[in-house]
Amino acid sequence: MSQLVLFNKPFNTLCQFTGEPGDSTLADYMDIPKVYPAGRLDKDSEGLLLLTDDGQLQHQIANPKKKMAKTYWVQVEGAPNEKDLEPLRHGVEIQKYTTKPAKVKIIKEPNVWRRDPPVRERKNVPDTWLELTLKEGKNRQVRRMTAAIGFPTLRLIRAQIGPWGLEGLAPGEYKVIDVEAPKASAFKSPHKPSKRFSKSRK
């Protein structure tokens, strides 16, 4: 069995255990030896981050070729309709790259925590929540996708990765579960956790 940590990453926290003075990092919230992030989440994004002590499991979760679905709750500026969202379902161009088709729908505001600091509001401009599911993960992809159709992202929360979700976790909280380790034969070569995520305390 492998150890998997489900962590609800707060806004403005780095997905690493070290940082510059004044940075909020993973070390502020957990002290679990030899676990490493499986993938990443931008500093200004919130929600589910997975960490593991198993390099093969880390690779299986983080590798885009494994096509593990990731679901986001996205608060956008404006009021998109179904026609506006259609390009996301077929692929949109962001920085000379055409995204793969995504699943997207308009949802009611999810029952989530208040962000600190709060999202900026404009009195004469509405906002809308979307649920968006991808099987890829380019740099700041969700934000660039909504901007490409004319609805900038105000707040971004990752709600689910594969079968694992945020349920029951407040910002800064985590839980540890045991999962079946991937079979070594499923990989061409052993994969070690990325050194850039190596853990050290401040």
Description:
Mean pLDDT is about 90; it is low at about 185-200. The protein has helices spanning about 55-60, 80-90, 140-150; strands at about 1-10, 35, 45-50, 70-75, 95, 95-100, 105, 125-135, 155-160, 165, 175-180. Strands 1, 2, 3, 4, 7, 8, 9, 10 and 11 form a nine-stranded mixed β-sheet that branches. With about 200 residues, it is of the alpha+beta class. The protein contains three helices and eleven strands, in the order βββαβαββββαβββ.
Structure at a glance:
The chain is an alpha+beta fold. The protein has helices at residues 55-62, 82-90, 141-148, and strands at residues 2-9, 36-37, 46-52, 70-77, 93-94, 97-98, 103-107, 127-134, 153-161, 164-165, 174-179.
Set out the fold topology.
Layout: E1 2-9, E2 36-37, E3 46-52, H1 55-62, E4 70-77, H2 82-90, E5 93-94, E6 97-98, E7 103-107, E8 127-134, H3 141-148, E9 153-161, E10 164-165, E11 174-179
Parallel strand pairs: 3-9
Antiparallel strand pairs: 1-3, 1-11, 2-3, 4-8, 4-9, 5-6, 7-8, 9-10
Structural class: alpha+beta
Oligomer: single chain
Listing every helix as H and every strand as E from the N terminus to the C terminus, the arrangement reads EEEHEHEEEEHEEE
Any idea what the radius of gyration is? 17 Å
Query: How would you sum up the major sheet?
Result: 9 strands, mixed
Low-pLDDT runs of 5+ residues are 185-202
DSSP strand tally: 11
Q: Kindly estimate the percentage of residues that lie in beta strands according to DSSP.
A: 25-35%
Number of distinct helices? 3
How far the N terminus sits from the C terminus, by CA atoms, comes to 30 Å
> What is the helix content?
10-25%
What's the rounded overall pLDDT mean?
89
Shape: globular
